[in-house]
Histidine N-alpha-methyltransferase
Amino acid sequence: MKPFLLTRTLPEDATDAALRADVLHGLSRRPKTLPPKWFYDARGSELFEEITRLPEYYPTRAEREILIDRAGEIAAASGARTLVELGSGSSEKTRHLLDALADLHSYVPVDVSESALRGAAEALLKERPGLSVHALIADFTAGLTLPETPGPRLVAFLGGTLGNLLPAERSVFLKSVRDLLAPGDTLLLGTDLVKDEEVLVAAYDDAAGVTAAFNRNVLSVVDRELGADFVPEDFAHVARWNPREEWIEMRLRARRSLTVKIPELDLVVPFEAGEELRTEVSAKFREDGVRGELAAAGLRLAHWWTDSEDRFALSLSTV
Ligand code: AVJ
């Protein structure tokens, strides 16, 4: 097996410290919130993979269609010799990109999960032994330093995960991505699009209840990591379209008044009957809005591609 480089810039205890801070801050304020990054323990990642195969959850299929149809244009427009992928490249999305980027020399997957990175790197090197892989264990929302690799770079942030960031966070994130890019580098961004409310809500509240299990799983993460005594079934899954913010909100609603103890934080958290804990926003975009947010970060939208049903978009932008 050809070796690959693995660099950790995330301190070993960063995840634990961040979870403690997020739970303390998020559950001590009104309305209560938790950041969606905590969904993705092993069980949560498994449930998300299941979500991507659900009939109601169109984003993965829609993005795959664009990637396959437009791979040649993406490669021609970027001319990339290095692909940097924010968020683990374990998924097949990466393969469609790598297939298209004929001159590629280096692949730089970036993720907080070492196991996801190792899995992605080993799988890709089996298929592409000529590729140079340099994986980064890092939180890409906390500023990145990329390894020296041949340019130009294509930075890919796919899946619509940009939508999990609140507008102010997106502005900071896009500026940090812009600072990574040199002239000639490009950003490939996946964004889910505004559409009928019932289509959007169904994608986050599937009939099989997989998304409900995914949502409740964050309570099990807090129980396991911080010794809390959440009973996930005490909370009902809620998916709601926020027309003002143009985002889907996932929430967990307490079925009755209850109290949760979190001994690791010396915290007792009361919930009134019907009180909701917001666990995720998933923003939906319009072309002009994306163009404006990229421009505010110093990026110029050069290409906008949507799937045949106008559900999802990939955009390529330059500095
Ligand atoms: C992986 C963040 C893009 O927001 O659609 C799927 C996560 N949440 N179902 C999304 C998710 C509920 C997904 N992203």
About this structure: The CA atoms of residues 304 and 315 lie 5 Å apart. DSSP finds nine helices and 14 strands in the chain.
